[in-house]
Amino acid sequence: MKKGDHLFLVDGSGYIFRAYHGLPPLTRKSDGLPVGAVAGFCNMLWKLMVSARDTEVGVTPSHFAVIFDYSSKTFRNELYDQYKANRSAPPEDLVPQFGLIRDATRAFELPCIEIEGFEADDLIATYCRLATEAGGDTTIISSDKDLMQLVSPSVSMYDPMKDREIREPEVIEKWGVPPAKMIDLQALTGDSIDNVPGVPGIGPKTAAQLLEEYGDLDTLLERAGKIKQQKRREVIIANADKARLSRELVRLRTDVPVPETLDELVLHPLNGPKLISFLKAMEFTALTRRVADKTDTDLASVGKAKVEVETGAEAHGPDLDTGEPRPAPDKDTSFPGDRAGKVEGKTPQDLANKRIEEAANSKIDTSAYVTIRDADTLKEWIERAKDIGYVAFDTETTSLDPMQAELCGFSLCSEPGVAAYVPLIHKSGTGDLLGGGLAPDQIDTRTALDLLKPLLEDPSVLKIAQNLKYDLVVMNRYGIDVRPFDDTMLISYVLDAGKGGHGMDVLAERWLGHRTIQFKDVAGTGKAKTTFDYVPIDRATEYAAEDADVTLRLWRALKPRLVADGVVAVYERLERPLVPVLAQMEQRGISVDRQTLSRISGELAQKAAALEDEIYELAGEKFSIGSPKQLGDILFGRMMLPGGSKTKTGQWSTSVFVLEELAAEGHELPRKIVDWRQLTKLKSTYTDALPEYIHPETKRVHTSFALAATTTGRLSSSEPNLQNIPIRTSEGRRIRTAFVAEPGNKLISADYSQIELRLLAHIADIPELKHAFENGLDIHAATAAEMFGLDVEKVPTDVRRQAKTINFGIIYGISAFGLATRLGISREEAGDYIKRYFDRFPGIRNYIEGTKKRARDRLYVETIFGRRAYYPEIKASNPQTRAFNERAAINAPIQGSAADIIRRAMIRMDDALKQEKLGARMLLQVHDELIFEAPEKEVDETIRIVRAVMEDAAMPAVSLSVPLQVDARAADNWDEAH
C-alpha cells in the first residue's frame, strides 16, 4: 500500500445486524430459508464496490476487506469476566445467515478476516494503523461509536444506511468530545450492551463536560475530590476503579497479528460468474441482473452455487473457495463474539429501544420538504428509492371512497426528513364555480404514473404505508399493483391492540412526540371545505410529504418491536397478507337489488307507523318517540316505572339495556319502543341508505373493511356497515334478500358452525364438548344432557334453549343477572344453572380463572396463533371497569382465534380457487361467514374447495383437537344462501 491508496474496512459483524433489523424480512422462495440479512449485506457490498465514488465518501477504494468477530470470548473476558455476559441468543432466523454472509463476502472476491481472541474492532484498528503508516487513507464502513476513537485526518467512517461520512466534526457534534477523547468518554459512561460498567449515573453529556473541564480521565480521577456537585463527586470517587477497567475494555488494540498484509487486501475486479453463481443460489434476482449487466456475464451460462447452510452452533460452513470446513466458533449461545449489535443493539429489544428513542428525539421540519414538478426530478427520487431498497409512499385524493377517488398527487420518503410531494391535478382556483384550471408546473398524471409503476411493483423495493389498503385500491384502479409492502397501522395493531388507536396522527404523537398537520388545516371546514385538488401546492406539499416522512419514521421505530415482542408471525401470516385480499374484495363489491330494498323500506315504514299508534295508546299521549328526554319523562316521570336512573345530563336513561330490563319484567310499552327502534334503524341504516352506496359505474355496493378496528382481530366494515345486519329478526333477514347474484351466477354463503364453542372445547380442553363435536352431536342438546343427566336424544326444546344460551353466554363471561334476563328466569335459578354448568365442565372454570390471572399478570391475552389483545385496565380500581375488562379478556382468546382462522382461510382462498381454475370470487366477510359469487355450473366444486380451505385453515400452525365444520349453500340471494 502506498500514499494515495484508499482502504475500505467493512465492519461485517455490525452490518449483519444492521441488515437484519433495518430491512424487511426475506425468505428464499424455493425452501423458505431466511436470507434478509444476506440480501441487505450483498446489496451494501455491491453499492460500495460499484458506486462508492457517488456516495458521501466520494472515493473509489483501492483496498478492501470485510472484518468479522471470530467468537464471543476474547482477551477482554480475562480482564472482566462479565464482559458481554448479558448477551442473549440471536434470533432463530438469523443463525443460518451468519455463514452465508461469509460465503457472500468470498463470492465478491473480498478478504473475509477474523482472528480468535480478538474482536473485529481490534482488527479494524490495527489495519487503520498500518494503512496510516503506509501513507494511505482508510474508511471504516460502520457507525459504531466504539470505532469513533479511530477517526483521524487519515481515517474516517461511513454509515451506508444514512449515506453519511463521519469525521471529527461529526464525532464532536454527536458526543461533545473529539475522537481522541472517545475512550475516556466511554470509560465514564460504560456500555449496557457490552456490559461495560462505567461510572453509574454518568451519561454522555455529563462525561463530555467533565472531560472538557479536566482534560482526560486520569486527571479527572486525580482531582475528583474538587468536583463541586456532591453526588457526582462521590460516585466518581467510589467508582474510579470501574472507570479505569472500563477504559481498558473499550480501548481498541492496534497490534493484532493480522493474517493478511495490506497488499493482500488489494481490490480485485469482480468475478462475474462466481458472484452470480452465489446470488442465483440465494435467489436474489434483481441483484443478479445488475451484476450480469455490469460484468457482461451471460446469465444463462452460469449455474447455481452449492452453498451449505449452517444451523445452530455448527461451524461457519464450508469455505466457498476451497470447500474446506471453516473453524468452529466457541460453543456459546450467542453469535460468535458479535459486537454487531453495538451499532443498534445486539438483541432485538436493544434495537427496538434504540429506534424508539431515536424517533422520540428526532425533529420534523415540514418546511424542508420538496415539491417535484418535473419528470427528471421524479426519476432521480425513484432511482434513489431503488438504491436504498425501501420507500414510504402515500396518495392524496379527492375522496375518502377509494373506488371513486381521483388521484391528486403522491408523496415519497426514503430517509427521515427527506420527503417530497408530486402534485398532479391541483387547480388554481378555490373550488367554487369560478375556480380556474390546472395549476402550472405539474407532471402529467399518466407520465408520472408510468415512471412510478416500476418502483411500486419492484419486488426488491419495500413500499411502506399507513393504512395501505386504501392506497392499494386507488392505485389498482390506475393499473398499478403495489408489492411488496409494510403497513405501519397494522404493525402498531399487532403490537398494541387494545392500548389505543392506530391512526397516523395518534401514532405520531405517541411515538414521535409530533402533532401532524390536520386535513382541516389545509382543506378547511364547513362551507369553506374543499377537496384536496384545490389545496395550494405549497400547503399540499407540507401536508402530504409529512405523511410519508412520519410513516417512514414510525416504520423504523415500530418494525423492530415485532421481533422484540415475538409477534412477527402474527404480522407476516395474519395481517400483511390479508391487505391485498381485502382490497380485491372491496373492488369486487356485491350487487344489491334497488327494487327489493324499496319494497322492504315501504313495509318497514308501515310496521313502524302501526307500532307508533300502539305506543301512543299505551303512553296515553303522542310524543316524539325518538326523543330520549320525552320517552324518559313518560316512562319514569308520569308512568313511574321501576329502575329509572338519570344520566350525567340529568335526563332519564332510556338505553336498550334499560328498556330490555323493563320489557323482561312484563312492561309492554318499553318492548314496543325497542321494536320501533329496531324497525326505524333498519329502514334508515339499510333500506333507505344502501341505494346511495351503489357505485355509478360498477352498479355494485363496495364496503370498506377495517383490519385494525377491534382488539380481538375481528374485521369490521363501513360505508356501508354490512357486519351488523340483524339475522335473528325476520326484517333483518329480509334485507339480506336484496343482496343478489349477477345473472348466470349464484351467491355462496360458507359459515363456520359454532366455531367459538369448538375453540372453547380446544383451548379449555373440555372432554365432553370435544366428544360431542367429534361425533357430530347437537352440542346444545349434549350440553343439556351433561348438565341435567338426560338422554341426548330426549332433551326437551326449552332445556336445549337454556343450554344454548349458557353455551354462548359463557364465552362472554355472562353473569347470573344477564342469564336471568335472557331466559326470563329468576337470578337465583340462573345462578344455579351457571354453577351446575361449571360443576359439570370444570375445565371451563379453570380456563376462565386462568385467563383472568394471566391477563392481570401480563395485561394481555393471546389467541392460539399468538395474537395479543391488551387490557390495560383489567386491574382498575373501578369494579365495573375491571369486570368489563375481565369479561373481554375471557372472550378474546376464543373470538380472536376464530377471527385468525377465518383470516387464514381468506388469505389462502383465491389461490385455491385459481388452482382449480374456478371463476368464483370472494366478496364479503361477515364475522364467521364468507360470501362468494360463482358461476352456476361451478357451484358444487366451488363449495367443495371453499369448505376444504376453511376447515383446514388452522393447519399447519395449530392442530385443533376438535374438527371445524363449515355449512355452505348457494342461492340467488344472501338470505336464501345462509
UniProtKB/TrEMBL annotation:
InterPro entries: 3'-5'_exonuclease_dom, 5-3_exonucl_a-hlix_arch_N, 5-3_exonuclease, 5-3_exonuclease_C_sf, DNA-dir_DNA_pol_A_CS, DNA-dir_DNA_pol_A_palm_dom, DNA/RNA_pol_sf, DNA_polI_H3TH. Residues 389-564 form the Exonuclease domain. In addition to polymerase activity, this DNA polymerase exhibits 3'-5' and 5'-3' exonuclease activity. Keywords: DNA damage, DNA repair, DNA replication, DNA-binding, DNA-directed DNA polymerase, Exonuclease, Hydrolase, Nuclease, Nucleotidyltransferase, Transferase. The keyword Cytoplasm does not apply. Its EC number is 2.7.7.7. Residues 369-563 form the 3'-5' exonuclease domain. Residues 5-268 form the 5'-3' exonuclease domain. Residues 316-350 have a biased composition (Basic and acidic residues). GO terms for molecular function: DNA-directed DNA polymerase activity. Residues 732-938 form the DNA-directed DNA polymerase family A palm domain. It is an enzyme of class 2 (transferase). Coiled coil: none annotated. This is DNA polymerase I. Single-chain monomer with multiple functions. It holds the Pfam family DNA_pol_A. The gene is polA. Belongs to the DNA polymerase type-A family. Residues 309-350 are annotated as: Disordered. Gene3D superfamilies: 3.30.70.370, 5' to 3' exonuclease, C-terminal subdomain, 5'-nuclease, Ribonuclease H-like superfamily/Ribonuclease H, Taq DNA Polymerase, Chain T, domain 4. It catalyses: DNA(n) + a 2'-deoxyribonucleoside 5'-triphosphate = DNA(n+1) + diphosphate.
